[in-house]
UniProtKB/TrEMBL annotation:
GO biological process: cilium assembly; regulation of microtubule cytoskeleton organization
Protein name per the record: Centrosomal protein of 70 kDa
Source species: Leiothrix lutea
Subunit (UniProt): Directly interacts with tubulin-gamma; this interaction determines centrosomal localization.
GO terms for cellular component: centrosome
Function: Plays a role in the organization of both preexisting and nascent microtubules in interphase cells. During mitosis, required for the organization and orientation of the mitotic spindle.
InterPro entries: ARM-type_fold, CEP70
This protein's UniProt keywords: Coiled coil, Cytoplasm, Cytoskeleton, TPR repeat
Location in the cell: Cytoplasm, Cytoskeleton, Microtubule organizing center, Centrosome
GO molecular function: gamma-tubulin binding
PANTHER family documented for this protein: CENTROSOMAL PROTEIN OF 70 KDA
Top-level taxon of origin: Eukaryota
Length: 246
């Protein structure tokens, strides 16, 4: 018993011992101990030792959980020098946690580097697509593209409404519809010209236009000469002026 007390006393005097491990007895128990000279102040130690035993068991459970987490995050690191040891130390757990934290920091740095590389590739691709020679011109060209896109979107929306098309109709449908309208308008204009010139043959229309082209220049020159000769400025005054000469 004395050896046990001596061993406990040496542990308590160690610099690593918790400062509150020794708690002197109080009350009747203390008086009894003083009278019988049997007190040592360690009556609470059984409960403390039981608590430590539970903590050691929990430490093993915590080590098992950390090992599972390590295998999830570090599947290549399957070797654990503490697997075959019965006692688990806090240092063992700290090593696992440090390895996990180091791997997470490494992944974060790689993610940031990859992100910067991706952003640089996107900017370079934008410069090629929209013919931007410098980084300073990227933002102005972005604004210009955004403005043009807005104008085109509004124009397409208006065309959908004017042509009575569904809003989901693609641009190809809009272009085809506009083309059909142009064909209809061109056909109507051709028919009107044919009615005006009194012919249904395109070659006859061309011949009549050529005849008019040959006739009107000399006729215009004659009228100009008459206006100058009669000293008048209006073509309607030519006939009265000629009648006055009779």
């Amino acid at each position: 018993w004395l050896k046990v007390l001596s061993r406990i006393d040496s542990i308590l005097q160690s610099p690593r011992a918790p400062p509150s491990i020794f708690r002197p007895s109080k009350g009747p128990v203390q008086n009894y101990i003083k009278e019988n000279q049997q007190g040592c102040g360690f009556e609470h130690l059984p409960l403390t030792i039981e608590m430590w035993a539970d903590q050691l068991v929990a430490l093993k459970d915590l080590h098992r959980s950390l090992r599972k987490l390590s295998l999830e995050l570090l599947p290549w690191n399957t070797k654990d020098p503490q697997d075959n040891r019965e006692s688990i130390r806090v240092e063992d757990l700290q090593l696992i946690v440090d390895a996990i934290l180091e791997e997470l920091e490494h992944k974060e740095k790689n993610s940031q580097t990859q992100s910067l590389h991706t952003l640089s590739a996107i900017v370079s691709h934008f410069q090629k697509l929209f013919d931007v020679n410098s980084l300073n011109g990227v933002y102005p060209r972005m604004n210009e593209v955004y403005t043009k896109l807005g104008e085109m979107t509004n124009a397409m929306r208006n065309l959908h409404e004017l042509l009575e098309l569904d809003s989901s109709a693609p641009p190809t449908v809009v272009v085809d519809t506009v083309g059909k309208l142009c064909d209809i308008i061109t056909k109507n204009v051709t028919e009107q010209v044919q009615q005006l010139l009194g012919t249904q043959d395109i070659h006859s229309i061309i011949n009549k236009l050529e005849e008019h082209e040959c006739f009107f220049p000399p006729f215009q020159a004659l009228i100009q000469d008459l206006l100058c000769l009669l000293e008048i400025s209006n073509m309607d005054d030519i006939l009265p002026a000629v009648q006055n000469l009779k």
